[in-house]
UniProtKB/TrEMBL annotation:
Keywords: DNA-binding, Transcription, Transcription regulation. This is LysR family transcriptional regulator. Residues 2-59 form the HTH lysR-type domain. It holds the Pfam family HTH_1. The keyword GTP-binding does not apply. Belongs to the LysR transcriptional regulatory family. It comes from the Bacteria. GO terms for molecular function: DNA-binding transcription factor activity; sequence-specific DNA binding.
Length: 300
């Protein structure tokens, strides 16, 4: 007899790319998973997987079986999870991968309202700046700067990120206040390490767009690193206007009528899966909260 649980295990193993990764995600010993897969292959009467010491691949029959079963497994698992939350508080565990830039953008207390409203939801937050391997690491949701163009993932834009020019009062006193974009060429810059822009940006102002080259001695891929360097008088930095609202930073806005709009922040989750009720609730909260931050930045 074919067991539905064994089919679900097979789908998770294929998605994870191996027994060890599937075992971590399912919380099940790898040898148990291996035994259940053998029982499934016996029940269907054909091998579904090709195994080696390092790799695991579907057979031709396994490919067909996986493609026909995966959506049904997702629907059944979602129905099971929703039964636990129907008529009562949402419960469950959500694993979230955040880039350091999103963490700095959100600021302290960003998730407080969600956690207070959903006491039965356990959330694990991990800071991962590289593109996360969602399925392999059992991650439900990733929050990051910049889009991901991959058909295996669902990408939802959360909001823009606006950068402004900032410097310390001590720096301005020593080197003078820029009055026009062209004056920046004579100033020291703090570089933001972004491979999509390198050192070249486009800044917008009341007189249109201007090319802006931020080429300085000090560089960082962290918003807080940029803020600390600017507070130490290392030069003028392009810093998120949203991040500058968190805390009391000893910086002043330079050329406040000019700004840079970046790709923005995105929520990412696997395309093949269906978000659990807890993960969906967290995503809905993030969408609403980032919209408020986006509006506040536009009003500033």
């Amino acid at each position: 007899m074919i067991k539905l649980d064994d089919i679900a295990i097979f789908v998770h193993v294929v998605r994870a790319g191996g027994l060890a990764a599937a075992a971590r995600r399912l919380g099940m010993p790898a040898n148990t998973i291996s035994r259940r897969l053998r029982e499934l292959e016996t029940a269907v009467g054909t091998p579904l997987l090709l195994r080696s010491s390092r790799y695991l691949h579907c057979t031709a029959a396994g490919d067909v079986f996986f493609s026909r079963c995966q959506d049904s497994v997702d629907v059944l698992e979602l129905a099971s999870r929703d039964l636990h939350s129907s008529g009562c508080q949402i419960r469950g565990e959500v694993r979230v991968a955040m880039s350091s830039s999103f963490s700095e953008f959100a600021g302290p207390g960003f998730f407080n309202d969600f956690l207070d409203t959903n006491p039965q939801v356990r959330v694990q937050f991990m800071i991962i700046d590289q593109e996360p391997r969602l399925v392999d690491n059992g991650i439900d949701l990733a929050l990051r700067l910049g889009p991901i163009d991959k058909p295996s993932k669902v990408v939802r834009k959360l909001g823009r990120v606006t950068l402004g020019l900032y410097a310390s009062e001590a720096y301005i006193a020593a080197y003078g206040q820029p009055c026009h974009i062209s004056d920046l060429r004579a100033h020291r810059h703090i570089r933001y390490l972004d491979p999509r822009h390198n050192e070249n940006w486009v800044i917008k102002g009341p007189d249109g767009e201007h090319p802006l080259r931020m080429d300085g001695q000090f560089a960082s891929d962290s918003t807080m690193g940029m803020i600390h360097a600017a507070e130490a008088g290392r030069g003028i930095a392009l810093i998120s206007t949203q991040a500058m609202r968190h805390g009391r930073h000893a910086l002043v806005r330079v050329l406040p009528d000019y700004h840079v709009v970046t790709d923005g922040f995105y929520a990412v989750y696997p395309a093949h899966g269906t978000l659990s009720a807890a993960a969906r609730a967290l995503l809905d909260f993030v969408i609403q909260a980032t919209a408020l931050l986006d509006q506040a930045a536009g009003d500033a």
